[in-house]
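Structural biology now treats backbone shape like a language. To illustrate, our science desk offers a sequence and the tokens encoding its fold:
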Amino acid sequence: MPSISYMIRGLKIKNKNNFAEGPHSTLPEDEFFDAVETGLDKIEEDMQLRVKLKLQSQQSQISTNSIIPAQSENGEDGGDDEKFGTGALAKSHGLWSEIDRVCLEQLHHARQGVGQDGNGWQIFADEGEIKMYKREEEVNGMVVDPLKAYHSVKGVTAREMCHYFFMPEFRNEWETTLEDCTILEKISPDTFLFLQTHKRVWPASQRDALFWSHMRKITDGLDEGAADTWIVCNNSTDYSKQESKNGKCVRIFLTVIMACQTHLPPGKTKTDALSRDDLTCKVTYCSVVNPGGWAPASALRAIYKREYPKFLKRFTSYVIDQRKDKPIMF
């Protein structure tokens, strides 16, 4: 546990328990935010160092495996079967009706705009190709603001973007706060049940999430000009009664969709000889997260305004870097 003086930028605390997350916390909201912000900065610095050391190690090794073999269109995500991304292999599972219903609902929400009918969306980040919107909502005093983000990414496909968001073996490389990700059940190659534990960032309590994740190819209602559409939908479930790993985590309840479209230059199709310069992936990311426990509303909103743009930039840059020397995967 880092010293309190480090975590709170010089704030002197005699009893840190009085300042921990909760409705009786005596820590002012601005100092709560400062503490979490400092903790997140330290986590990100540690991750950047790990990435740098990993890159240096890779560059210093001469390996016979350094030449990347050509991949089949479907082989990288365990989906060499034509049924991958259709849900066909998960339909006999007890969760399937919920998975199918939530995916279709979230796809509908992702396709809706943010300016119609005065529906309360407010822009909170506008950074180049990234635009992020929020609707301020609270349930029992807890912030559960729906968020929606749009991004346009060059050089990757919709499937590639969803592949790295869905597959658990990559998650620790782009999710900075992840401590542990356990597959509770592999329902099918395109549908998993996860218990995901996040690092504690003082004074907030440590959190985890139990959710199913489903990756799907969308074949109907494609936007004009879209060569294909893939989605990943994550949704909390009580299907499994799995407790937190340390018995102390506050459980997050989440619903997330990442919907991605591949766009190609006019006149080109997926069967043509393409380079990565021909690829544009349009991303819509929607989330509703209930933190599961009390925390200052103003601090939570300040944190997500800072962290969500950084997450989307970090994740899309990671996918670009991972795919730049690999065959295109549709």
